[in-house]
Amino acid sequence: MQRYLKSIEDWFNKWRKTKAGKKCSFKIYSKGPIPKELSSGEFKLFIFNEAIPVNHNPKYLGINLDRNLNFKYHTELVREKLFKLLNIIKCLTFKKWSLSTERLINVYKVLIRSTMEYVPQLLLVNGENIERLHGVQYKALQILLKESPRCSNLFIHHLSQIETIHDRIYSLSEKYFEKNILK
């Protein structure tokens, strides 16, 4: 790998560019056991004579990768973000704002649902990820519609006329594959 990094350095030098090693990171994925020198931290890569740090949960194009590539770590970070956004929804449902349910549902679609739907194909890798986000969706719709915690999931989705996150992700994935893969 170091040989390839050297060719990258040569390319950067040719075009009079530079790259800081501390702004880079690497993670090695393997189906087999992790080599001892890698797990002990002895394995080092360098670019422009700077060590490149190992990142066990690198972020690539807004997606947080984890060791097993099951995207649980990414889902947890999305859930944390969604719970912060739920506080905004709670504030907007306060009586003084007096927003209609239709407007609140539009706010939900913009804030909550759009965050959940980023890269829906990743969530299909592990059904547990969808279930974790489904709980947040239920809580958000419950707040919007001012329903009791004992209210059924089907009833809330019927009232709001919003499909479950599970159905939504599958339909988005189907559209994506039909449009881009099956062309």
From TrEMBL:
Keyword match Nucleotidyltransferase: yes
MF-aspect GO terms: RNA-directed DNA polymerase activity
Keywords, comma-separated and alphabetical: Nucleotidyltransferase, RNA-directed DNA polymerase, Transferase
Domain of life: Eukaryota
Protein name as catalogued: RNA-directed DNA polymerase from mobile element jockey-like
Organism: Brachionus plicatilis
Lineage: Eukaryota, Metazoa, Spiralia, Gnathifera, Rotifera
